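Hello,

I think I submitted the magnesium ion job twice by accident. Can you confirm which output corresponds to this input? Input:
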Amino acid sequence: MESSENKVQSTKNKAHSGYVALIGRPNAGKSTLLNRVVGQKIAAVSDKPQTTRFRIQGIITKPEGQAVFVDTPGVHQPGYELNRRMMTAVQDALLGVDLVALIRDASVSTGNGDRFVLDLVKRSEKPALLLLNKIDKLEEKSALLPLIDWYRNEYDWREIIPISALKDEMTDVLVASVLRHLPEGEPIFSEDELTDQSLRVLVSEIVREKVLRQSGDEIPYVTAVVTERFEEVREDFARINCVIVVERTSQKKIIIGKGASRLKEIGIAARRDIEALLGHRVHLELFVKVEEDWRNDARLLDEYGLA
Ligand SMILES: Nc1nc2c(ncn2[C@@H]2O[C@H](COP(=O)(O)OP(=O)(O)OP(=O)(O)O)[C@@H](O)[C@H]2O)c(=O)[nH]1
Ligand SMILES: [Mg+2]
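Support: Only one job matched these inputs. Its output is below.
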């Protein structure tokens, strides 16, 4: 009797593991969700569209299994070589995962961009979850019903889950659902691994996020950040130099600001996050450099890690 009970138990508790892609339009909240579920800031977040430029993995390990969340750039029409590469990153992510999570800003009305994203998910023919994000912005939760109806007619979703990545609503339900829908299997990564990104890249992305947050509408698209020096001088102190690349001298002036005031603000905000990431003090130096048309320059894109 006892042994059969144990058997039932062990089948029930079989661990699940695998990859889940976060796919959606720019600004849907994919990176906010990634950071939220991992419990650490690993992806840049801003209110400017096209913040994320490459695939970023965030790993969650629980007794029920391990989920590797794959954050991707927001789906948009590619103009520059950079944007073509961003869209290739989305396609590659879709190919390589066990599960797809379409994340949709539920506070805005449906447009062509949403149909385009939906088509990508349909063509992938993968099991998929629909995440209706930003429910904290809705006055009435019943506003979700027409949206749910519309999506339900379009694809055979494994689950439809309203969430708020920002306010941490229903995100535990979402993680449990992801784990349930991943295949049975052993963990892929060790328990203490949180991301596939190197410290240098995490640092560059922190600086880029601060640039995006402290600038107007033009700068985000024309900015790349590279960590040129990362020296752990002592166990508890590092010297870091980052280069902020823009396309024109006028943009360089905007980022530096009057009396270097904006660059200083960017540096202070970035250093705070970098110190939290590394757990010790950091000396951060920022430089601004002009590289005309870097977004169409394959060599520079490779150099900046935008492969
Ligand atoms: N109110 C509210 N805002 C949110 C929520 N999730 C994300 N946001 C905000 O939406 C904006 C975009 O968030 P991101 O996480 O950068 O969006 P993304 O989908 O990664 O965007 P791209 O990388 O550009 O594709 C930021 O200002 C977030 O703070 C949410 O649940 N509620
Ligand atoms: Mg993003």
